[in-house]
Structure formats: structure tokens, C-alpha cells
Design a protein that fits this description.
about 400 residues; 20 helices
């Protein structure tokens, strides 16, 4: 038995049921962790027929024990009897749940509208995906201490206000959908930023591909859901072309288009066409259109940078923020000249110091190279390499640094 795989596969389902039972995320995560440690010690000699059921029973016992101990200390009461099964417990065992996937179900559960919008996706990514506070801070462009406070406040509100940790009915999906989409987007971004899929977020690429498709089946008339599923397919279609023979990252506009996955491209195009039939235009539809525009190089041999820059001009109005702004600056530089791109990059305003953000330094390096400023490009590349990029990205940046360094010496 693959012990780690069995435990990881059961995590979402068991943590969801524990959170629903105890209304306490910390307790749910701690109880599951204790059960998982016991499983690693016990299963090699006595593997269970149903690992998820074994983990559920073991974690439930630990959760009940912890609850009883806490109640006894606080109130000096006798141990209470085990609570009756809740609707969440029954839904966990149902053959045909409302949301027919354990991880997607838990994402909807965690994205509760009573929580602050900026906390929903962060809390969900921590509970569902197990992302560390440090990784979450990088993903949301905040300090690690600020992210810890955000998650702590969200958990405290759940505990203090008695927020019902239950599977929402279909009528309640709409108020949670934005946070659900943000969760999937950020989870996918953790895998996408590593072209070689060499890090601990590698599994998110295939998982978000699957979950976004399932969500599109559940909500086939929502243009933003369809567009997110489309852009993930467009991005994953390029996966075979993202590394060269030496393992270095290949920039999107330099990839061999013959290596792109035509099946995923066709699936994404169908989804984006369906989204285009709706009247409203949201950020995911524009992002899907940006990814779709890059595909035009298969037919024309050139990337339509003016179109992409115009799409980013529209996206920045709907989704202002440093991620959109940096991507827009690169597109503006390619479409309207390096000076325009550097101006756009310099105009970015954020509470965080962008000097320690890898995408900003990489974008600055490219624009400075394009503008004929090798010394500035070299400084940006040095800064980017110091920020610990993944292996494929490090190799690519190091090669660029060598080339720029040679130009500086020659000049």
C-alpha cells in the first residue's frame, strides 16, 4: 500500500467531516494529523481494507477525546455521550452527494460567506491543500505574519460565531463561488510557477484541471466557471513545451507550438466559446481570452501582443493588483515598446515591497534587456536568482544572466 498516497487521498474527506462535527478547524486538522501518524505506524503490519474509514474513526476518537478533556477542564463535567450523526456525517457517506467530489465539497464548505473575503481562499488553501503559511503569504503577496493573523482571525470567527461548517445547498453556491474560483486559481498558480513540477505543489496542476472541469459540469451556464476551466486547459496544454532538453524553462512566446496538447486546447476553446455566449464579462473571461490569444501563434507564427496588452488594460480595471499589473507591464512592453513597459512597471503601487517578489524582478530584467539597459537587467536578474526560484526557472534565469553579463563586459 502507498501509505502516503492513501492518507493524502483521504485528507479532504476526513477533515471536512471532522470540521463539520466539531466546528473547529484546528481540532479537525490536529485530529487527522494524529490519526495519520498512527496509521503510518500501524498500517505496514495491518493494512486496512478502507483507509479513509480507518482514518475517520481514528481521527473522530481523537477529536472526541480532545473535546471531552477540554470540556472537563472548563466545566468539570462528566464525559458527554458521543453526539448524534450530523447532516454532514450523513452526506459524507451518501452515494450521491450534492457536490460529488470530496475535495471540491470541502472547498465549498470552507469558503463560508461569514468570513472576510480575503480570508476565505487563504483558509481554504491551508485546510484543503495543506499549504504552509509561508507559501500562502507569497501567493497573496503579504507578510507571513499578516497571513498568520488572517488565518487565525478566520478560525477564531468560526469558533466564536458558531459558523456552520456544513455542505451548502445549491442555492447557497453563488455566494461562495468567487472564493471557490480564487482557491482553484491560486492552487493552480502554485504548480504553474514551477515549470518542471519539481516542488511540493506539483500535484495541484492535475487536480485543478480535474476540479475545474467538474465545476464546469456542475455550473454549465456560469461564464466565469467555464472561463477558469478553459484557461487552466490552455495553460496545461503548454506543459510539454515548457522545458528545453536541459531542463530549463522556456518562455511562453518561445515555446515550440507543435508540442502543445491539441486535445486540451480544443477542450478549452469549447469552454471559452460557451462562456462567450453569456452577456456579463468577468476577470476569468478576460484571462481566458488572454491565454487564448497566445494560441494564435500556432496559426500566424507571431504572438498578438497588441491584443494581449488591450486585454490586460481591461483586466486591470476589473482586477487591480500587482499580479495583473506586472503581467500587463510585460505585455505593454512587447506591444508598445520597452519604455512603456518600464513605465507601467514603475507605476505599480502596493503595500508590499515588490523588490523581493520574483515575478517583478524577472519582468524588470526582461524589460531592461529590451530597452538596452544591460546593467539594470543584470541587477534585476541577480535579485531574481537570490529569491530562490524553482530549478527550471533558476536555470533559465542563470543563462540570461550569463548572456547579459557578457554584454556588460563587452560594453
Amino acid at each position: 500500500m502507498d501509505l502516503g498516497g492513501a492518507i493524502a487521498g483521504a485528507r479532504s474527506r476526513v477533515v471536512a467531516a471532522l470540521a463539520a462535527r466539531f466546528r473547529d478547524l484546528d481540532l479537525a486538522e490536529d485530529a487527522f494529523s494524529d490519526a495519520a501518524l498512527t496509521a503510518l505506524a500501524v498500517w505496514p503490519a495491518d493494512p486496512p481494507r478502507d483507509p479513509a474509514a480507518w482514518l475517520w474513526r481514528a481521527a473522530l476518537r481523537r477529536g472526541l477525546d480532545a473535546t471531552r478533556r477540554a470540556r472537563t477542564r472548563a466545566e468539570a463535567l462528566h464525559d458527554p455521550p458521543p453526539p448524534d450523526p450530523t447532516p454532514e456525517d450523513l452526506a459524507m457517506q451518501a452515494d450521491e452527494p450534492i457536490i460529488p467530489d470530496e475535495r471540491l465539497r470541502l472547498i465549498f464548505v470552507c469558503c463560508h460567506p461569514a468570513l472576510a473575503p480575503e480570508a476565505r481562499a487563504a483558509l481554504t488553501l491551508k485546510v484543503v491543500c495543506g499549504l504552509s503559511t509561508a507559501r500562502l503569504a507569497r501567493a497573496f503577496l503579504v507578510a507571513e505574519s499578516a497571513m498568520l493573523q488572517r488565518i487565525t482571525r478566520a478560525k477564531a470567527k468560526i469558533a466564536a460565531a458558531g459558523v456552520p461548517f456544513e455542505i451548502p445547498t445549491r442555492a447557497a453556491w453563488r455566494e461562495r463561488l468567487g472564493a471557490v474560483l480564487a482557491t482553484l486559481e491560486i492552487a493552480y498558480a502554485q504548480a504553474y510557477e514551477d515549470a518542471a513540477l519539481a516542488g511540493d505543489a506539483a500535484d495541484f496542476a492535475a487536480e485543478v484541471l480535474r476540479l475545474s472541469g467538474l465545476l464546469a459540469e456542475l455550473l454549465p451556464d456560469d461564464p466565469e466557471v467555464l472561463a477558469l476551466a478553459a484557461l487552466v486547459r490552455f495553460a496545461e496544454a503548454r506543459r510539454p513545451a515548457r522545458l528545453d532538453d536541459s531542463g530549463a524553462m522556456v518562455p511562453l512566446d518561445q515555446q515550440e507550438v507543435v508540442l502543445w496538447d491539441e486535445r486540451l486546447i480544443a477542450d478549452g476553446a469549447r469552454l471559452l466559446d460557451r462562456a462567450a455566449g453569456e452577456k456579463s464579462t468577468g476577470p476569468y473571461r478576460i484571462m481566458g481570452a488572454i491565454h487564448g490569444a497566445h494560441l494564435a501563434r500556432r496559426e500566424t507564427g507571431a504572438t498578438p501582443w497588441p491584443t494581449i496588452a488591450a486585454l490586460y488594460d481591461a483586466l486591470i480595471l476589473l482586477r487591480p493588483g500587482p499580479v495583473t499589473a506586472v503581467n500587463r507591464a510585460v505585455a505593454v512592453g512587447m506591444a508598445r515598446g520597452a519604455e512603456a513597459g518600464l513605465t507601467a512597471l514603475g507605476d505599480i503601487r502596493t503595500d508590499r515591497d515588490l523588490e523581493d517578489w520574483l515575478p517583478w524582478q524577472a519582468a524588470r530584467a526582461g524589460l531592461c534587456e529590451q530597452a538596452g539597459l544591460p546593467a539594470e537587467a543584470l541587477a534585476a536578474l541577480d535579485a531574481a536568482l537570490a529569491l530562490g526560484p524553482p530549478p527550471a526557472e533558476r536555470l533559465y534565469l542563470a543563462r540570461r544572466r550569463d548572456a547579459v553579463s557578457a554584454a556588460v563586459r563587452a560594453g
